[in-house]
Automatic annotation (TrEMBL):
Lineage: Bacteria, Pseudomonadati, Pseudomonadota, Alphaproteobacteria, Rhodobacterales
UniProt cross-references to SUPFAM superfamilies, sorted A to Z: ClpP/crotonase (SSF52096)
UniProt-recorded name of the protein: Enoyl-CoA hydratase/isomerase family protein
Gene3D superfamilies xref list: 2-enoyl-CoA Hydratase, Chain A, domain 1, Lyase 2-enoyl-coa Hydratase, Chain A, domain 2
Transmembrane segment boundaries: none
Organism whose genome encodes this protein: Paracoccus amoyensis
Domain of life the protein comes from: Bacteria
PROSITE patterns: ENOYL_COA_HYDRATASE (PS00166)
């Protein structure tokens, strides 16, 4: 499909998905959610990493509150539009980096936090802004945030709806990295290049293992590790990785 509210392009194995409604701080419209879902579920095989970011001065301000249909049918909107988008992120066959270039608020914050790796500019903030309008956090926030930073900090974020700085989010373990604004673009690009040149199937297995650990006991997780490691050990990338190690050279992974 052609996209109206996002920009999408592919170069050197990296797909860049830019939320592109800067006039409203990239607020999530129904059209944008549909387009994000479509882009992530129709990735061509050449893609080995996705970078999700925002245009203009913010990442995403959350739900577009001028969308009266969505605002008056919250349960249906979450079920029919947000859930497919979030599942498209979870089921994406390659790692997703959320490059948070500015404010990430409400559902916009939780969209970022649903990525595999979150890298933020130091000027960025994360705000669970829902109680400001009498709502509860959604878009996966009540699932992701307590698991990342514990109930005490999650509760404070959600009850007080106060901004959390990028550096604070990094120190809490909510995100991976906070970079000085001047280094942000190149820092994200370097991380994306590393993933795009890495062992894609091993990355996929890591994501599956991390996702399932919260519901497994030790025996189940050890069994899953063994299964996934067996699959990884049958890949071309494993052969290349061992060969490169023995030959004392950088590995040239192909993602197979």
């Amino acid at each position: 499909m052609s996209y109206e509210s996002i920009q999408f392009g592919i170069k050197d194995g990296i797909a860049t998905l830019i939320l592109n409604r800067p006039q409203v701080m990239n607020a999530l419209s129904s059209q944008m959610r549909l387009e994000i879902t479509d882009a992530l579920t129709t990735l061509p095989s050449e893609v080995r990493c996705v970078v999700l970011t925002g245009s203009g001065r913010g990442f995403c301000s959350g739900q577009d509150l001028t969308d009266r249909v969505a605002a008056t049918n919250l349960e249906a909107t979450l079920r029919d539009e947000y859930e497919p988008m979030l599942r498209a992120m979870t089921n994406c066959p390659v790692p997703i980096i959320a490059a948070v270039n500015g404010v990430a608020a409400g559902a916009g914050a939780n969209l970022a936090l649903a990525a595999d790796v979150v890298i933020a500019a130091e000027s960025a903030t994360f705000i669970q802004a829902f109680t400001r309008i009498g709502l509860i956090p959604d878009a996966g926030g009540t699932f992701i945030i307590p698991r990342a930073i514990g109930n005490a900090r999650a509760m404070g974020m959600m009850l007080f709806a106060e901004p959390v700085t990028a550096r604070q989010a990094m120190e809490w373990g909510l995100i991976w990295e906070a970079l000085p604004d001047d280094d942000f673009a190149e820092g994200v690009a370097a991380r994306a290049r590393k993933l795009a040149q890495g062992p894609t199937l091993a990355y996929r297995a890591i994501r599956k293992a991390i996702t399932e650990t919260s519901q497994n006991d030790l025996d189940a997780q050890l069994a899953l590790e063994a299964k996934l490691q067996g699959e990884a050990g049958r890949t071309t990338d494993f052969v290349e990785g061992v060969t490169a190690f023995l030959e004392k050279r950088p590995a040239k992974f192909t993602g197979h």
